[in-house]
Fold this sequence. Notes:
The chain is mostly beta strands. The protein has helices at residues 33-42, 180-188; strands spanning 10-11, 17-26, 47-54, 57-62, 75-77, 91-96, 106-112, 123-132, 139-143, 153-162, 165-175. The protein is built from two helices and eleven strands; from the N terminus they run ββαβββββββββα. The strands form two sheets. The chain has a six-stranded antiparallel β-sheet, covered by helices on one side.
Amino acid sequence: MLNMKKDQAEGLTGVSVLQVGVAWKTSGGGQKGLMGRLRRAVGTDLDLTAVALADGRPKRLCWFDNTDAFDNGSLITLGDNRTGKANGDDETIIARFNQLPTSIDTLVFIVTAFKDGVSFANVEGVTLNVYDGGPGGQRIGQYMPDIDSRSDACVMAKAVRAGDGWTITVINEMGRASTRDQLLQLAKQYA
C-alpha cells in the first residue's frame, strides 16, 4: 500500500495499468431543510481530468469531452458522473503505461468544478483512490485532499515517468480552472 503523503514520490513498481478514481459526497451547501435535501438530491457535477504532458508541455486532455486521449486506449476515462452518487468512485481514469507515447513523461490528475453553478462548496469531501489496474489489481493508495470552496480546481496527484517505471506524487493544491486554458496552465505548473 502506498503512503500517499503530499509531495512524496512513490514508485509504482510492477504497475503497468494505473487506475485513478475520485469519489465525492454532495452536501446541502450549508442549507438546512428542504433546500439542503434538494441540493443533495440533485448532486454535484465534478470532473476528473488527466493532462498528459511531454517536457512540461500539455499534449492531451482526458476528460468528459475527450474520453480516449490518444485514440488507442492508453489514457481513458470511464465516464462523466454528473451527480456524485455512484457506489465507490464517481469518475475514473485509466492509464496503460506501456501504451502511452514514449514522449509523455507526466500525467497530472485534476478534479474541477468546471461547469457554471458548480463549486466545491457543494461537496463534503473528495477522496482520491489509486489502483493497480492490472489483472487481480486492487486499491494501492487513498488520499483525502484539502478542499477550498473559493477555488474551482484541485490538483490531486501526478504520475511521472522514471526510467522504465513510473512514480506517483500527491499534489493537493487548489487553483483556478474555469476554462480549458486555465486547466492546461494549472497542469503545467506541476510538470
